[in-house]
Amino acid sequence: MDRDQYYMEMAIEEALKAKEKNEVPIGCVIVLEDQVIARGHNLRESEQQATAHAEIITIQKACKKLHSWRLENAELYVTLEPCPMCAGSIIMSRIKRVIFGTHDQKGGCAGTLMNLLTDERFNHQCEVKSGVLQEQCAALLTDFFKELRIKKAQLKKLKQEGNN
């Protein structure tokens, strides 16, 4: 297993923590000098907070740990391609490298819809690598939403039976 796969496995562990909380299973770790300095996962539903994405939470933890908003030599590993908000936070925190598992067809801003992370109009750009443990990362999301649809259908059926 190479280095990127090793750290992506940790991000997947974080995604599984989110899933246990009925959150969309997205996980993130930030690495600096081969040390994990922060971990996080999606908490939007738990906190009812639009900005509680895995990347934002993990960036906040890393900044707090380093006592600095600058994460200049850090690498961010995340299971799903960053959205515009997260890509903006990555740029503003000066993260050096972003490695993600699977593309986000609806909101990805690290190559799918656009690439904010390498846009030279900003004062900082990141190296970007995609597709690390892509199948596992994609399956986490596919399985989660499949299970969610099944649960919703079962609830709907129960409500209909209760009204009869």
Key terms:
164 residues; five-stranded mixed sheet; 5 helices; 5 strands
Can you tell me about this structure?
The chain has 164 residues and is α/β, with parallel strands linked by helices. Helix content is 45%, strand content 17%. It has five helices and five strands; from the N terminus they run H-E-E-H-H-E-H-E-E-H. It has a five-stranded mixed beta sheet. A hairpin with a 2-residue loop joins strand 1 (27-32) and strand 2. Helix 1 packs parallel to helix 5. The model has no long low-confidence stretch (mean pLDDT 95). Residues 2-120 form the CMP/dCMP-type deaminase domain. Belongs to the cytidine and deoxycytidylate deaminase family. ADAT2 subfamily. Homodimer.
Report a brief summary of the structure.
The chain is built from five helices and five strands, in the order H-E-E-H-H-E-H-E-E-H. It has 164 residues and is an alpha/beta fold.
